[in-house]
């Protein structure tokens, strides 16, 4: 460590104004985000309208809106992300405080006998009360920008933590909506499956009557029994699926799973209508997605922090300069405040641990590699975001095609059941034909109910991939 007694104040101020070492962050360069393809529309998008902030409100379900708000308030993952955000903001405050002077105070009263020999006196001194009090002020000059680069890195870390918090909000909104939709979809599928069971029971009853009347065979009865058992076997998985969705929803809103009966409203517990959008999904363009998705913002801020840390490490190659001022009073207690007890001093301190250049430059190389890795992660995040949206839109588009075909199938089955009923009433066919037509209709309704559930789930996947729902 080197101590210098006299350095002009002007020189210190000049040094303090030097440019910060390390690269200045300019944002990702030559990145995938700049690709014209990434900025354009999506292949399977039906609408390029802007995605609304609260996209779940497009379902027009008041109960769902309340559940999402509850999840935003009580979800444990969000609380954890909020705590991490608070931690990074506190660390930012610590980094910023290094820009301010350090002020210290001391007070040391005492009682005793000072050494006469130390003062050059021939006789011993009397016992007496004494004191030593003082104030010190020191200021660290940011010679090469180490402090400012540290603040820059901490600021980027804090903004990355905010993006991570927003990402959790997207997930919570999406998973809450999905759990609600799964409850309703399972309820609808259970309703349709129970209708199929009831129809098969009617068919079994008719087969048994025909067998007893000698107009049927035992094979018909056994076959009906087997079909009934098969239809009944479809009920427990749907019941479990519905119950599990309720448990998920309870936990997402901050409750224990066992409390679903008391914490979830009856309209949710009894829901059997799958929520559907009244219009096409407003997906926007790739440029909107790249600005909106929190994980892209988080990766970009992490890149900024990694770039700033190159400067922090590079600053170790240079000395640090601080300016100190001390003032105080020392003497016997009865002399407190006398002018001859006063003391003060001012002076600079240059400290420079002669660096191990090889080790320091190795740390600089490591920090640079870390920044390059952060850039690669940023590109990967951008590509992943685009892939997730395109994939989700493709799955949704194909399910729309399937759903349209199933709607046609149900329409045809409905017409067949209607005609079978008319033929039966006019005596042109048996009631068994009516039951068969109704079973076909129930099967078509079951397939359509399952498709409607998948359609809603795919819609939610698109919304989550688009990254909406984090705005407060």
Give the helix/strand class: alpha+beta
In N-to-C order, the SSE pattern is: HHHHEEEHHHHHHHEEHH
Span of the ends, CA to CA:
52 Å
What is the CATH T-level topology?
Answer: Outer membrane efflux proteins (OEP)
What's the number of extended β-strand segments? 5
The CATH homology group name: Outer membrane efflux proteins (OEP)
The number of helical runs is 13
Beta-strand content: 5-15%
Number of domains: 1
Proportion of residues in helical segments: 55-70%
Give the name of the CATH architecture. Up-down Bundle
Broad CATH class? Mainly Alpha
Largest sheet: 5 strands, antiparallel
Query: Which value, in Å, is the CA radius of gyration?
Result: 38 Å
Multimer state? single chain
The stretches of 5 or more residues where confidence is low (pLDDT under 50) are 1-7
Short description:
The chain is 61% helix and 10% strand.
Features:
472 residues, elongated, 13 helices, Outer membrane efflux proteins (OEP), alpha+beta, 61% helix, five-stranded antiparallel β-sheet
Description:
The protein is an alpha+beta fold and 472 residues long. The chain has a single domain, classed as Outer membrane efflux proteins (OEP). Helix content is 61%, strand content 10%. The protein contains 13 helices and 5 strands. Strands 1, 2, 3, 4 and 5 form a 5-stranded antiparallel sheet that branches. The longest helix is centred in the C-terminal third of the chain and has 69 residues, at 357-425. Residues 1-7 have low confidence and may be disordered.
């Amino acid at each position: 460590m080197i101590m210098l007694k006299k350095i002009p104040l002007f020189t210190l101020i000049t040094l303090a104004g030097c440019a910060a070492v390390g690269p200045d962050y300019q944002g990702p360069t030559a990145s995938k985000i700049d690709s014209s393809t990434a900025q354009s529309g999506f292949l399977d998008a039906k609408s390029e309208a802007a995605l609304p902030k609260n996209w779940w409100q497009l379902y027009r379900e008041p109960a769902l809106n309340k559940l999402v708000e509850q999840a935003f308030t009580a979800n444990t993952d969000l609380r954890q992300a909020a705590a991490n955000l608070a931690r990074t903001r506190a660390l930012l405050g610590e980094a910023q405080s290094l820009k301010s002077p350090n002020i210290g105070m001391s007070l040391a009263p005492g009682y005793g006998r000072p050494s006469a020999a130390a003062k050059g006196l021939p006789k011993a001194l009397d016992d007496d009360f004494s004191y030593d009090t003082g104030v010190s002020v020191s200021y660290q000059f940011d010679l090469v920008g180490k402090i400012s680069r540290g603040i820059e890195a901490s600021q980027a870390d804090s903004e990355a933590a905010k993006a991570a918090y927003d990402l959790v909000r997207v997930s919570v909104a999406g998973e809450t909506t999905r759990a609600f939709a799964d409850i309703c979809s399972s309820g609808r599928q259970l309703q349709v499956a129970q209708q199929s069971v009831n129809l098969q029971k009617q068919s079994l009853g008719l087969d048994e009557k025909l067998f007893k009347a000698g107009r049927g065979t035992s094979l018909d009865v056994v076959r009906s029994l087997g079909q009934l058992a098969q239809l009944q076997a479809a009920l427990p998985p749907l019941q479990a699926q519905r119950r599990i969705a309720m448990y998920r929803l309870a936990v997402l809103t901050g409750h224990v799973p066992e409390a679903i009966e008391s914490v979830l409203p009856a309209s949710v517990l009894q829901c059997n209508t799958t929520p559907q959008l009244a219009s096409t999904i407003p997906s926007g363009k790739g440029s909107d997605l790249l600005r909106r998705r929190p994980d892209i913002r988080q990766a970009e801020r992490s890149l900024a922090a990694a770039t700033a840390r190159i400067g922090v490490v590079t600053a170790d190659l240079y000395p640090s300069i601080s300016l100190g001022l001390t003032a105080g009073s020392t003497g016997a207690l009865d002399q407190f405040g006398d002018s001859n007890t006063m003391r003060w001093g001012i002076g600079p301190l240059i400290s420079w641990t002669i660096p191990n250049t090889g080790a320091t430059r190795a740390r600089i190389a490591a920090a640079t590699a870390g920044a390059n890795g952060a850039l690669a992660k940023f590109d990967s995040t951008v590509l992943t975001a685009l892939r997730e949206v395109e994939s989700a839109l493709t799955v949704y588009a194909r399910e729309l095609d399937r759903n349209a075909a199933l709607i046609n199938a149900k329409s045809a089955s409905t017409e067949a059941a209607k005609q079978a009923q008319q033929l039966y009433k006019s005596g042109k066919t048996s009631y068994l034909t009516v039951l068969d037509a109704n079973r076909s209709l129930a099967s078509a309704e079951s397939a359509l109910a399952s498709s409607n559930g998948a359609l809603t789930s795919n819609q939610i996947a698109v919304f989550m991939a688009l990254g909406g729902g984090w705005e407060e």
